[in-house]
Input
Amino acid sequence: MADNYLEFSETLDTLTPEEAAWLEQQLGEDQDTGCPVFLLNYEDRDPDDTDCGFAYSFEESDGIRHLWLYADESGNADHAAHLVQKFLKQFRPDQCWSLTYATTCSKLRVGEFAGGAVFVTADEIRTQNAYDFIEDCTKAFQRQIEVRRLVQEAERLGIQPEGLDDAVHDAASVPASSVNNGGLDEQIAYLVEQFGFAAAEETIKGLAEANNREEGEDHGTALS
Output
């Protein structure tokens, strides 16, 4: 017989009185369901589940108040992330929050020790656990092996790099079209990802200057 645990310990820091009061209300029990208020709109909530999914306490140090969220046995990191996302939407839409957790076993059973992380913003909750990481790395390794095999096959067949130019251009045009169809948000995000913030900003400013020059030239032509 062995016990499995999911443990974490994180805080929501520097709470204002209004924020603390809101959190207390959200963590309170709904009179009709017995469920914590913040879970009433949780998409995957079991109607019979009234468990918060973690322990908590409001702590104060040097006049600064924070909420401590923790679990020492069987915590629910998704519940904690849901609460914090609601909090960010309500009070801090331009901030983010993260939680790391450990999954352990009371016996040294192979494959039963892992962990993960949750990254929360007002718009998104992203999760990653150790098993997903291993799976991603395994797929990447297998892909590398297949690429190496195809390179060897291409060399055996006498394929030269320039022979694949058109195929590469065609393949690259598909994601480029998708990015362009996504508007400024996706275009700028792509430029930042490819070249960095400074280069992306320089590109934007350069385009603005070019547009201003064109407008000036058009205005001068119209006056003449």
